[in-house]
């Protein structure tokens, strides 16, 4: 204990301990037990579900460069159009499905039910004979996956306090990158070992394996997914633990998204900051999945075309965990600038294009640092708006809706498949988008700190509720410093 106390006195040591101390000793025993149950229930299914979703998304690109293009005669901008079909339906499903996700009685069962249909669609994709079949299936998938990302983030932010949320969101976000990464290895293995088995091409087996993985995970969700704190108590939680969960997270509004939510949310600055930032984020990072197109054009084998881009996903997984976790104990603006610098440099290199292949590899791999951006942004939304399910759900769904709404048409001009792999319009545009994205959040965090200082009543009430729920904890401040004190005092950690 003496060693831990002495380490905490050092700023770096305090940060390290904060990152790995998921169950602080100053929490009551009952609260630590509740957190362990929530971690097992939410993080296991949430991460696996996220993994399955991004496995399916990456499978389209991997299948395209592994024989699907030739088998379906999907030449020209067909790959763009598959993405457009998905994104259009994804946009249309955002607010309807997120509205359902904010309803306590539906929240525990919505995502597992949708995931069963994801698996069925994956099996159907293995049977497609014409390109237009895939348009329909991608659109259906997009609609049914609309609440996966935002809905899971809503659940995370509803059960965990700010200092708990950042650590767990980082682990959850790793499912995104690991799903994309696993898809590359899976396609390479399918092409090597299953191509031609039972008369099926290797890329068709990719979708079959995806469905086999997705289906049992959906049934796990029916057993463990907790929904919202206002949802009916799940079997693994005692009545006392459920009451503690409701007490831990202060809420001003529990009815979910209503018509009043729209008026209230649009009158506050957070909606405008977050939505505009996410629109530019989507465009700034669109290119990070296109390394395979460059590799295919240079004559690499199909196995290497599928394997080499997975290192981007590995770096994205690590950076998303580090970025989100450290955002709970270091300056959010510093981390935001750190990740933007790497991506900005990569965009400049790829805009020039006539550089050595080694530098191109470095630029594509630097794109993995983009994994920090979305987790930091969404965790900031959750921690800033923890008190209101409806406002938080509406902002998250609006970010996804408008972000992907613009992603439907802008890439047709910036990253048309016929301009691959150089994309002379895409990489310069991504450079501008990256800088704009960085500037919006930097200014937005500064403005929200000032805005909250002018509206202290709600913040004081929330702080009082959090203190009352567990006695002691770690609260957010804007000092940019870390100060860890004994049990009877508060440890102040900056999240802005």
Automatic annotation (TrEMBL):
Q: Where in the cell is it found?
A: Membrane
The question of whether Transmembrane is a record keyword is answered with yes
UniProt keyword Membrane present: yes
Q: What is its main location?
A: membrane
Q: Where is the signal peptide?
A: none
Show the Pfam families listed in the entry.
MFS_1
Tell me the superkingdom of the source.
Answer: Eukaryota
Q: Which GO terms describe its cellular component?
A: membrane
- Molecular functions (GO terms): transmembrane transporter activity
Q: Where is this region: Disordered?
A: 471-496
Keywords, in A-Z order: Glycoprotein, Membrane, Transmembrane, Transmembrane helix, Transport
Membrane disposition: Multi-pass membrane protein
Q: Which residues cross the membrane?
A: 109-128, 134-157, 169-191, 203-228, 270-287, 307-328, 335-355, 361-381, 393-415, 427-448
**Membership in a protein family:** Belongs to the major facilitator superfamily. Allantoate permease family.
Name it: Chromosome 4, complete genome
Q: Which species is this record about?
A: Gibberella zeae (strain ATCC MYA-4620 / CBS 123657 / FGSC 9075 / NRRL 31084 / PH-1)
